[in-house]
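Suppose a colleague, Dr. K., hands you the sequence of a protein chain of 191 amino acids and asks what its three-dimensional shape might be. Before reaching for any lab equipment, you can write down a predicted structure in token form. Begin with the sequence itself:
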Amino acid sequence: MTKITFSRRATLLGLSATLAAPSIARAQLLAPNAVAPARRNASSFVTQDWRDHFETLGKGVIVADTFSRALHYWNSDGSDYRVYPTSVPMTDELTKRGYTEVVRKKVGPTWTPTKAMRERDPTLPKFMEAGDGNPLGSHAMYLSWPAYLIHGTHDTRKIGRRSSSGCIGLYNEKIAELFEITPIGTQVRVL
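The predicted structure, expressed as tokens, is then:
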């Protein structure tokens, strides 16, 4: 009887595929009127291989995949491979794709919104010092493309979403880790 009730109740709740999210399913079965817990906003990562994008590793390579919202990093000899969840540009028009490289790095970056950003949102400040309210977070790696960066964020809700004005964002603790292992001259491809 319990199995029938469980299956019927799961079906009524639209949870017949409880294997996909068992903890959410169990929570809803135990407390059907409760609000489901918030899901993480990081998407599924698509596996990448650096050889699909670069001829050599050089000083290291980064593949920023805006489709799966993940940043892939390989060091110069390929022995260190890491994947990080990211935020990506809000629209395709804001997304610059192609090859670039890390040209500068900064702990505690300051922020100057571009003219286009200020046109979209006139309430933006002309300049912002480093700190908690700064949208560039704790660390920034500047690319050879003007105004495009790989940087941290203090607003963790942005990771896993289309939320940036063109940059690739990471959790502050993850950009700090990536910052330490990424030399200037690291090759970057944005997909």
